[in-house]
tRNA (guanine-N(1)-)-methyltransferase (Georgenia yuyongxinii), 493 residues
Amino acid sequence: MRIDVLTIFPAYLDALDLSLVGKARRDGLLDLRVHDLRAWTTDRHRTVDDTPFGGGAGMVMRPDIWGKALDDVLATGSVPAPATETPAVGLDHPAPAAAVTLTPAPRQVLLVPTPSGERFTQAMAEDLARADQLVLACGRYEGIDARVAEHYGASSSVEVREVSLGDYVLNGGEVAALVIVEAVARLLPGVLGNPDSLVEESHGAAGLLEYPVYTKPPVWAGLEVPEVLTSGHHGKVARWRRDQALVGTARRRPDMVAALDPHQLDRADRVVLAGQGWFVPAGGRPARVTVRHGRAEDAAALAELAAFTFPLACPPHMAVQDIQAFISEHLTSAHFDAYLADAARYQVLTAESADGVLVGYTLTVLPLSADEPPYADDVAALVTARPAAELSKVYVLPDYQGSGVAGVLLEATAADLAVRVVDGVAPAALWLGTNKANRRAQRSYQRAGFTVVGTRRFRVGDSLEEDLVMVRDLRAGEAAEVGETTGPTSGTR
Ligand code: ADE
């Protein structure tokens, strides 16, 4: 590849003699030429700028000087790429007088670094690495006369791209040229010693930031390398790295999470994203769900959601009147008033979609003392850890089922329990009863870290149902407080 940089400060680009780019130049993989723009001036002072038409501060770079320089540099780079094709010669193809040489026009790209350009990205670097010649025009002062980009943009043989490194202003295009040359050059075949380094790096095909990396010593400043990395278990290492990439991207670049292709996200990915407050709606890209503590004014909406979702979780054999009886006994607006008023006994968390719709909630019954057993004897015998909290309800609107909202709520519930200290101890276990027939719910609880410990009897109206009792060990993962307006920030399983 040929790269030409035009600048009034050629020495700025001396750094391109160093490291991998310098080696690529010496190895002949990159033909990089740095030119002093003033070489194209004709006056005694070698002037490249003048005052702006229309007034204003600063100076503008003259189009005539740039025009001469760019014409020359583009002309020397327009020598066709060496792609020669000789037609077959045989009985049906008598030899022509002279072999025909097909000469595809070289792809020449004029790059003008400017804070008002399109954002320079890895995808753009990958595209530019396929060009034959890049010409970087480094402006200074207030920039280059706008007719330069317009003139070359109108030419069919040159592509013009005005590019910005980011939303800040540099003194000129030289630093941007250094960045662009380095980002492009390392993608050229043969430049990186180990091309595998390109596969998983940040801003690559996965659309995620890269996972954290570690080397020797295994303990430094009291900090240990994560155990999984020394386990030798390649599958676990790969999963851990993917989890870290998802968590880091969710924390630092939510815009990248929102742009992830849902088809590239497996179940484990969705659980991790749920832990960061993201769900994946059916047929859509990841979206953020806001989890917060329920407030008194939520009672009516919660009762409405409960009355709508509770019947959907009941097995088909259950009589409608039994289901209705359960709702009137436990899930009316008045019941939610009571739950919301008694924060020591009940934890209510709500999940709202980005457009403010209540899409799910959890209701958890908290222990009031460290040794308080679960209220029913059959459960108390099965759930032995203390203090133990009961996840009494976790309901999500049908459109959001399977999207990860329930996961977001469960992680937020677990994270919030870690700070619900009773008698100096945070709850050690979260247990729940779920109808034996509801396999979908059981699978989703299993994914969220619950395991089956036995069965219990549970009354819905006049119907006595058999539930599975499942428990999640709350001491197993890290946890953090649930904020008023944001999703959980805790660990994920
Ligand atoms: N020149 C000045 N500021 C710049 C930026 N942010 N990106 C690219 N070129 C620039």
